[in-house]
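Troubleshooting: if your tokenizer reports a length mismatch, compare your output against this known-good record of 135 residues.
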Amino acid sequence: MLSGVNSRAVDLTKLHSKTAAFRRLQHDTTAQLYSAASGPEALNILESEEPDLILLDVLMPNMNGYQVCRRIWENPAMQTVPVIMMTGLDPSEEKARGRDVGATDIIVKPIHLADLLERLHFLGIRGDDEHSNGA
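Known-good structure output:
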């Protein structure tokens, strides 16, 4: 049962509102989601927000996800924030490239909510029911 992700997440993908996984995540969780339509807009959001997690699309206009991730990683205050990059490209090539710029993980599109929640759980970002059960 999905009760909620108790977290502040910055969703830096231009497609988040069009994917079923993100619509369900917004509907079924307590996560506070922010979204950006471009790399520069994403960086502007990060100047004023302190997220627990960043979901970052590889393909973004004006700055690609790798460029944004590198800029995030260059900020010492952001280096402990997990960055999960999302791609529809060849994951075998993208994983190494993502890690080179500071990404925590790469997931392949289409994003399935169960896969995303599994990664969030692995990163220690847990649902409310798990907190209340002492897990």
